């Protein structure tokens, strides 16, 4: 599991975090973000690697800057499977 504290980073740096985690984590691992995934369809697919992010849910947490921050849970899956 990786919790990415990249909320204040620019979009291009956040995409690098998403892609690097997709490349490095084992299938079934989780990436926790303080923001939505950068994707129009909710799933990031790396056709070269054959993996994608699947929405694993959302949780609301209290932080020092937001008492009700929605965090996004992503699960690494093989591109051809849904679970």
3D architecture notes:
- The protein is of the alpha+beta class and 83 residues long.
- The chain has one domain (2-78).
- 17% of the residues lie in helices and 36% in strands.
- The chain has one helix at residues 11-24, and strands at residues 2-4, 30-33, 45-46, 51-61, 69-78.
- A five-stranded mixed sheet has the order 1-2-5-4-3, covered by helices on one side.
- A hairpin with a 4-residue loop joins β3 and β4.
- The longest helix has 14 residues, at 11-24.
- The two termini are 17 Å apart.
Number of separate strands: 5
Helix content: 10-25%
Tertiary shape: globular
* Order of the strands making up the biggest sheet: 1-2-5-4-3
């Amino acid at each position: 599991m990786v919790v990415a504290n990249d909320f204040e980073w620019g979009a291009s740096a956040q995409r690098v975090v998403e892609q690097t985690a997709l490349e490095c984590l084992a299938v079934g691992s989780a990436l926790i973000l303080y923001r939505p995934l950068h994707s129009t369809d909710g799933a990031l697919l790396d056709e070269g690697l054959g993996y994608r992010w699947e929405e694993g849910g959302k949780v609301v947490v209290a932080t020092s800057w937001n008492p009700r921050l929605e965090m996004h849970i992503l699960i690494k899956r093989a591109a051809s499977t849904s679970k």
